Amino acid sequence: MRKTFERIKELVSKHEIKISAHGYDEIAEDDIFIKDIIADVDKGIIVENYHKYPKGPCVLVLQKDRDARPIHVVWGIPKGASSPAVIITAYRPDKDMWTDNFTRRRV
Fold first, then answer.
1. SS3 of 106, please?
2. Which of 10, 42, 65, 98 is placed for a possible disulfide with 36 were both Cys, Cβ 3.0 to 4.6 Å?
């Protein structure tokens, strides 16, 4: 899990980034700036790991925007590849679905 996220941060630092079409839609819908996602990736906290995701390993990361509001970003690396880091989706987590620190789903 940590290995995938470390690789993603390395790729972001090299500007090897792609945003999925779904990612663009969700980012726009939640009024998130891509600059905020990229700028804050080093401070991200891994929330969930999807190492067996069919399209390649990915992680759900808690990040913050420029106003310190929480953002969940699903970062991935394409299956069988070592680059680029892909923003699969990003959204503002729903307070009713997540604990107060947005790191665990409510049951």
1. coil
2. 65
Q: With contact defined as beta carbons under 8 Å apart, do 44 and 61 qualify? A: yes
| Digit-coded pLDDT (tens) for 44-77 | 999 999 988 899 999 999 999 999 999 999 999 9
Residue 60: beta bridge partners?
48, 74
Put residue 31 in one of left, alpha, beta given phi > 0 → left and psi -120 to 50 → alpha. Answer: left
Instruction: Give the total number of structural domains in the chain.
Output: 1
Question: Does a structural domain hold residue 65?
Answer: yes
pLDDT of res. 1:
56
Which ranges in 1-107 belong to alpha helices (H)? 2-13, 21-29, 34-39
Whole-number Å distance between alpha carbons of 5 and 89: 15
pTM for this structure? 0.93
